[in-house]
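Sample A.
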Amino acid sequence: MITPQQAGQTVKTLLRQSYHVSNTQLKRLKQRPDGLLRNGAPVFVTAVLSAGDRLHVLLEDTAGPPVTPCRLALDICWEDDYLLVVNKPAGLAVHPSALTEEAATLAGGIAGYLGPSCVFHPVNRLDRGTSGLMVVAKSGYIHDRCRQILHTSDFQRAYRAICVGTPSPAVGVVDRPIGRAPDSLLRREVSLSGSPARTAYEVLETKGAFSLVRLVPFTGRTHQLRVHMASIGCPLVGDWLYGTEDRRLIARPALHASALTLRHPMTGQWLRLTAPLPADMQALWEGGGS
């Protein structure tokens, strides 16, 4: 119901400014006869609203690629009607790969949990080898709302990583653009022609040949944390693409999404979630490289 404070606004202004409905979503709403209803009747987005009006908005989810549901034991850290936060294990792909057959994916596990009609909306993505906190939206509208605050003070992520050597200085920011390596479909590299990329780091502890570091990405480039750490001479332990693979130590890059701070896009509630270091990284750290 339209409040006295909202009266006098157009439908478009109300939806864009108060509810952050994207222009793409507005376009879809205008194309549906039942997309926007005022007091039960279709209404134009230019219509001026009055106090007491009832505005019905059909925010239908958009179709996504088909996802085959699978049975997967999800480590759910937080959930409500709008968002799901899971602690993804290392070795689990987020999406099915075009190059390999995937017996199980996070997308399939989410579909199995929420039902086959769900559309998978990962807000932040983790590489197959990266463990930790991932946010999944339960609708396209919430996904859009989350994307608008990604890499802002309203949506911040922190990682724990174990790297080779010790970064110097102990606290700093790597501000180096990242682009695709010309000789690889997968590999990325620091490149003047790449996209801007910034990562803050802090050395938490050093043990033997390794350091435990906290990493905070300010941008979201592919492999950003791995590329930036390698670029300062401290690649992640186990990073087969940007460092040296040694499966005796760990079977994947030692990277874990350990903390999440998020202002809920609907309620305004602050979510502060953490995920402890997984067993393989804990064993690596306790071994100290020995």
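Sample B, a different protein:
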Amino acid sequence: MLTDKLFEKVLIAPAKSGADRLYVVSGYATPSMVYKHFYEKGMGNFQVSLIIGMSSIEGIARAYHQEFKDLAQRDYKGRFECWYMTKLPPVHSKAYGWFAGNKPRQAFAGSANYTQNAFMEKQREVMVDADPAEVLSYFRSLLSESINCLDSKVERVIKLVDIERRRTKVPTQPTIVASPRLLPVVLGDDAPAVRVSLLDNKGQLPQRSGLNWGQRPEYRRNPDQAYIRLSSDVYTQKFFPPRGKHFTIVTDDGQTFDAVIAQDRGKAIETHFDNAFLGRYFRQRLGLASGSRVELSHLTQYGRTDIDFMKIDDETYYLDFSV
């Protein structure tokens, strides 16, 4: 019975030993877990096929659905595919079957969902050895009751849940609650939240960091590159995930990003694949051309020099840059 180091033992070691195809049936799953799994070094060009089992009764967060689609058709096209259960009763199972080509290698079953909370020892889970052929047979038996995330009919057969926010005052310091909300959620007064300034300690907008990180032609950087600077009074509160853990940012205008906490002491939020994603997003919100330098006057004209972050759960945060 496995009770510790599940990420390494269940999701990493089989691939490093020659397995290249993973079939997953999981009650719940998060896009940030998929990014974390594929981003692991030394894994080779493995593939993941995932069925999310509880979608038939609980639906899928619309932001997660968009990220699963991005994973399947853009970020890891040909390496990741995902289905949502559409039939009742829902599937709460967690099973993982590894293959090398068509040859079974290893399999596991137990309590751990395909999420970072389950596999990064945020909570206690148990996994046991299983038969890879049986896991694959179980996976295939569920396909006829599932719909691919790229299917145009998803919105007609799966409930897609939006994240809404009531207009409430956000504290300047994090307010942590004992039990983070689960999706679906309406963010209100009791949502853990923090306000993050886009300005430096002198009240100025940095010209070569933060939103202007890419404004360094001598380094031939993409001028849209950007990160969100976290001041010491924010990153020391441990409001955001630890450095290196992937999480999803959902914005007030419906965009989604896979993000990580980065830099020394975890003082920055960056987008995983390309920091230019974040820079282009803020330039669009400010009405600026791609690649242009962001000035303090642009923020003041827009009406904000800060961002509100609200914590939905340990892998999902809501970003509000609305005026």
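Observation for Sample B: The chain has two domains: 6-161, 164-320.
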